[in-house]
Amino acid sequence: MRRLTLLTLACVIGVVSAGCSRPAGTREAATEALGAAELRSIEYSGTGRWFQLGQAPGPTLPWPQFDVSSFTATVDYQTPGARVQMARRQTVEPGRTRPAPVEQRPVQIVSGTFAWNMAPPAGAPPNAPPAPQPQPAAVEERVMEIWTTPHGFLKAAAANNATSQPTEGGSDVSFTADGHRYVGQINAQNQVERVQAWIDNPVLGDTPVEISYSDYRDFGGVMFPGRIQRTQGGYPVLDITVSSVTANPTVDLQVPEAVRSFAPPPVNVIVDKLANGVYYLRGGTHHSLAIDQADHIVVVEGPQNEARSEAVIAKAKELIPNKPIRYVVNTHVHFDHSGGLRTFVDEGATVVTHAMNRPYYEQAWAAPRTINPDRLAKSGKSAMFETVTGKHVLTDGRRSIELHEIAGSGHNDAYLLVYLPTEGIAFQSDAYTPAAPNAPPPTAANPYSVNLMENIQRLKLNVRQFAPGHGPGVATMASLRAVITPAGTN
Ligand SMILES: [Zn+2]
Fold first, then answer.
1. Which residues contact 23 (CB under 8 A, 6 or more apart)?
2. Are 397 and 441 a contacting pair, CB within 8 Å?
3. Spatial separation of the C-alpha atoms in residues 195 and 173, rounded to whole Å
4. What's the Cα-to-Cα distance from 480 to each of 196, 356, 448, rounded to whole Å?
5. What's the whole-model pTM score?
6. In the predicted model, is pLDDT for residue 18 greater than 90?
């Protein structure tokens, strides 16, 4: 420490010595020390942990953890492009029941303005050969990952007129690129120690992404951190111990024709009428329900994002004209089931959710939304809530809509089942997802589905039709029973 301080001082007063031609702790000194200007590409590998953003099993819990047995990131700073591959398996939390974890091997690529995954096509068996799956919505985040690597940060700082603020022994460097603000800390050892950036998220708004880099060492000629820890939305999303680094590897990230020519299909809403005034709204990956009450509409589930919600709202109003959407029921806080709620709030709907979720949404929705302001950010309306513990009933005096807590599920601790007693219709998300028509029968019972059945029996619900939040369409108690007693079990 003493030696470094003297070295820093020597640099500051302009004494030129070996390894010190610029004041220490500056962007220029870090660029020189890390060889950032000359580096065209890099590949780094390691092991560690990955965490699934937005899928916490309860509103106050961190993102769930996966063990990463292999991780390789290959970055081309010139295109720019990157490929990240890993092998990971969920770590089941003590005391929580989840389906038996299976190894996942995602391959995620970005090249210029195109992003895609390599994976078996949708509906193909998991061992089918991987093919490019276009992921246009992922470009922004994957490009950000390039410019938040230590070398990438210094390159982007140089290219975007970064400003520097001296700190004790180092400096804070900040700049804006592609509409995103980046702030990095350079330490007295001329290392990029921490980088912060912000990305939009439908639930969290301007979401901080923070990466800390530690244990720098010389990996065969290139200085690189031995440990990379990333948090997003306040909880860890990645923690990698780096074991090998290659400077300037050849990187081939040719954009496949199927990705280059891909046009995202328009948001589509398909309607299944389940009963008088009860409409199942499908057409994408996440489904909703619209219910015609005497002088208002109840929508169950506001999934994904504003685009999905706007399409669901338009369809609900077309099916049930001249009535306001008074309530939107939220099954649980997982982001893919809550990302569209704010649009319903702007529409004037009260959010009906488990009591544990209310403080979570209130806090999350108070965050700034400058990157991608949604309707609610523009209107400034405040959210209204009606909360559920145990059981809650929404009624117009004629039709009852019962909301029941799904107790004891490993999937989520603040989890609702929607039940229409007169019609015998139940809506739930993720506890039971019917398989595609040609899928092979399950080899083991899904514990979330077993738990759902236990709740239905405990509550003595007479379910005649399931409207699940995912899957190919309506299902029955017989089909639920079939998946929780797979062949060979009893
Ligand atoms: Zn879920």
1. 8, 11, 12, 29
2. no
3. 9
4. 46, 28, 11
5. 0.93
6. no
